Amino acid sequence: MTAQTIDGKAVAQQLRADVARRAALLAAAGHQPGLAVVLVGDDPASQVYVRNKVKACEENGLFSLLDRLPADVTEDALLARIAELNTDARIDGILVQLPLPAHIDSHKVLEAIAPDKDVDGFHVANAGALMTGKPLFRPCTPYGVMKLLEAYRVPLAGAEAVVIGRSNIVGKPMALLLLEAGATVTICHSKTRDLIAHTQRADIVVAAVGRAKMLKGEMLKPGAVVIDVGINRDENGKLCGDVDFDSVVNVASAATPVPGGVGPMTITMLLVNTLEAAERKRPSPQA
Ligand SMILES: Nc1nc(=O)c2c([nH]1)NC[C@@H]1CN(c3ccc(C(=O)N[C@@H](CCC(=O)O)C(=O)O)cc3)C=[N+]21
Questions:
Q1: Closest CA to 209 of 182, 232, 176
Q2: What are the structural domain ranges in the chain?
Q3: Residue ranges of the chain with pLDDT lower than 70?
Q4: Which one of 78, 103, 219, 257 is separated from 114 by 20 to 30 angstroms, measured CA to CA?
Q5: Quick one: which atom of ligand 1 is closest to the CA of 262?
Q6: Per the annotation, where are the binding residues for NADP(+)?
């Protein structure tokens, strides 16, 4: 059996068409949804992602504002800029691109974003709302994964789901969204003793550890669904995921490629979160 490729690009395109339609309605009613992206420093990967986000806004009728600040910007200057964006009526969503330079306290910065504009869903208030099952914003990457699983009709109720990685921005919210959908969820991480015992039990494996090609075919139960959140560079500097795709395709029933899988969905769900923030403020005539 060779796994079906889960085409994140195609699902992203469908969802973005709906975003464009709803954004046009809001714009016609007098308020184009607006996203502010703040980029500190000039990390090349961050610049690619930020460029993709701004381009996706422009292509789908959202207003976007890109704030580029020098790597040596002070924490206070960044906090002051966020305070301005919090009160800027053109802006429905604010994203401060991570990672930030070491001299800046990321936690403090993320907490400075108004929770109702925190389209990353990283603010403690939004993380708490997610944990208690009434999320205002679902973090973009886990939200995008749920949309892929939905698009490919992967049964979740009662499914054995294994999330590898426990970050605040992917692993933990991913586990909570799978739990919310009725899966039995196991979170594995660097201290997990027998990772393979868990992954071989899983109907769904989400790899979000940041280790190139870590997940191999022999670690899976035949027919498992594999979601690769990794964004690594292999020995030749080529973009690759946490999944060894060539070995996994012979065992899995479906798998996301990198690029072309979760990445486009991350961007898309950022647009969806921004649009929904705008709709909450100004219900469009027919959302
Ligand atoms: N506050 C914040 N929110 C984020 O959501 C956030 C962040 N900081 N920091 C970095 C990560 C990473 N991230 C990606 C976005 C798009 C692609 C993406 O478009 N990937 C393409 C390939 C792009 C390329 O060519 O490198 C793909 O997988 O097909 C990947 C990764 C968002 N992040």
A1: 232
A2: 30-114, 140-263
A3: 283-287
A4: 103
A5: 28
A6: 165-167, 231
Q: Can you give the pLDDT at residue 47?
A: 95
Task: Give pLDDT, residue 283.
Answer: 61
Tokens of 23: 């954004």
Domain 140-263 has CATH 3.10.50.40: no
Q: CATH class for domain 30-114?
A: alpha beta
Which are the catalytic amino acids?
Answer: 53, 97, 120
pLDDT tens digit string along 76-124? 999 999 999 999 999 999 999 999 999 999 999 999 999 999 999 999 9
Closest CA to 212 of 199, 194, 230: 230
pTM reported for the whole predicted model: 0.97
Report the residue among 43, 47, 48, 49 best suited for mutation to probe ligand 1: largest number of ligand atoms under 8 A from its CB: 49
